[in-house]
Each structure stands twice: as C-alpha cells, then as structure tokens.
Specification:
The strands form two sheets. Strands 3-2-1-6 form a four-stranded mixed β-sheet. A two-stranded antiparallel ribbon has the order 4-5. The longest helix has 21 residues. By secondary structure, the chain is α+β, with helices and mostly antiparallel strands. It has a domain of 100 residues: K homology (KH) domain (GMP Synthetase, Chain A, domain 3). A hairpin with a 5-residue loop joins strand 1 and strand 2. Helix 1 packs across helix 3. 33% of the residues lie in helices and 16% in strands. The protein is built from four helices and six strands, in the order αββααβαβββ.
C-alpha cells in the first residue's frame, strides 16, 4: 500500500495529465466544449482512479460527454501510461461531478438574500438586549433618521453579493 502523500501526488499528476489530454487530444464531437477535471481519487492499491468531471451544458450534453469519455477511456489510459513512470496504470472510472452546479445554486440563493441595514454606530442596539432581570427589551420602534428612509422601511435594505472562487474550465477547440 503506497504512502498517502504519494497517492495524493500521483492523483494530482494524473489530474493534470488528463486535463491536457482531454483539452488538446480528444476530438470526439460528443465531448462538450467546456469540461473540467475537478478531482481524481485513487484507490489504496492505486489500481483504480475515479475521475470527477464537471460538464457545463444541459443534461444531454453531460450524458453525451460521459459516453464519449467512456469510449475514449482506452486511449486516455495509454496516454497516461506514456506520461507516468509507474508499473500499473490505474483503471479510469469517469464520474459526473455536479458540485459546481450546486455551488452556483447556493451562490444565487445567497445573492438573493436581502440584509437589513446595520444600526448606526452611535446608537446602541435596543432590540433583543437582555436586561438584568432576564427579560428582553421590546423591539426597537421605527424611526425616521431624517434621510427620507425610516429604519423599519425595506427600501433601505442592503444586498450582499458573495463570489466564491471557481475552477477554470478547460475550453476545447471545436472539432473540424
């Protein structure tokens, strides 16, 4: 059984090689234009590599891409063998990765949140503050600060925008 660090390094190297092969050498028209190898997981004995692939497009494009990758599996494995200096090249199992889609959906939900404005710094918050006797104060009343927007008015709410880092997709040249 190989060292776990060695397996991680090998998985990273396999991911780099597969990304180059898929982007530059595969000419199957069934493979979508934007495809990313998101991660490679190696079995403990390095006999099997599960390759997680993210495909941008509709469900038909994802299905066609996965079928094309299965068809090209032998060629990709031979290219992997020519690049790696190991005795046994792992068998490739292609798996569709939907994590980028889920991340986009979560970011869209977070971006749709409406956050009320923060109370002015010169005033202490009065709503929900516990007193010495254990009771909470009543909610703060709506006041006009003179800027035309009452503090309870929804028009003065702030919106936040959350942007997370994304994997860069591999853009493939179109087959001619």
């Amino acid at each position: 059984m190989p060292d776990p660090r060695r397996r991680e390094r090998l998985a990273s190297l396999i991911e780099q090689i597969l990304s180059q092969v898929v982007a530059r050498e595969l000419r199957d028209p069934g493979i979508a234009e934007i495809i990313s190898i998101t991660r490679v997981e190696l079995a403990a004995d390095v006999s099997v590599a599960r390759v997680h692939v993210s495909v941008m497009g509709d469900e038909d494009a994802r299905t066609a891409t996965m079928r094309a990758l299965e068809r090209a599996g032998g060629y990709v494995r031979r290219r992997l063998a020519s690049e790696l200096s190991i005795r046994q090249v792992p068998e490739l199992i292609w798996a569709l990765d939907r994590s980028i889609e889920r991340g986009d959906r979560v970011i869209a939900l977070l971006n749709s949140l409406v956050i009320p404005p923060a109370p002015p710094e010169d005033e202490p918050p009065t709503a929900g503050v516990a007193t010495d006797d254990g009771d909470e104060d009543a909610p703060a009343e709506v006041r006009d600060d003179g800027d035309g927007a009452a503090s309870g008015d929804t028009s003065g709410r702030r919106r936040i925008r959350l942007v997370l880092p994304r994997l860069l997709p591999v853009r493939r040249p179109r087959a001619r």
